[in-house]
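Protein entry
_____________
===
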Amino acid sequence: MVGGTGMLRGLSLALAEEGRMVSVVARTPSRLQSLTDAAKDFSGGINPLPLDYRDGARLQNALRRAVERFGPFGLAVCWIHSTAPEALRQVVEVIADTSESCRLFHVRGSAAANPVTGSRRPPEWLALYSNIQYRQVILGFVIEDGGSRWLTHAEISGGVLDAVRKDRPFSIVGTVEPWSFRP
């Protein structure tokens, strides 16, 4: 899990509670510790990977160590900001080298649904990795009371968890239409 201590914290905890060992990449050690502590009585657990995913070499090394310790990845959930344009590919390279098959849920912001500039297509380079099953989750917004608002962390975690459980190739959490209602 990349980005599993903030808006996806609930997803990290739900997966650990289901019995999964969840390797979580995050920049803030205190948030990782809080997440690890919250999951201490679960049947699964949190494997904290304190690092900045913009450092591709450290990211790949940490993921390889996680595979050595806990086994291959069967599920990857990645929320990666545009400040690290190569991070998704770096995660995929490690998974492709170490796992027979993996479902990759790429969590994206609402800008991916912009009818003018957005693109819902997966990255073209993913075609090189036949053992990766790409899934996309776009985070939208909520229309209520004559206005709109961004999703809460609970709504985001719940929506991504639903996409994972139902193994949907494409999901939108909330709505992205009409685009003019975007907060």
Summary: The first helix runs from residue 9 to 17. The chain is about 35% helix and 25% strand.
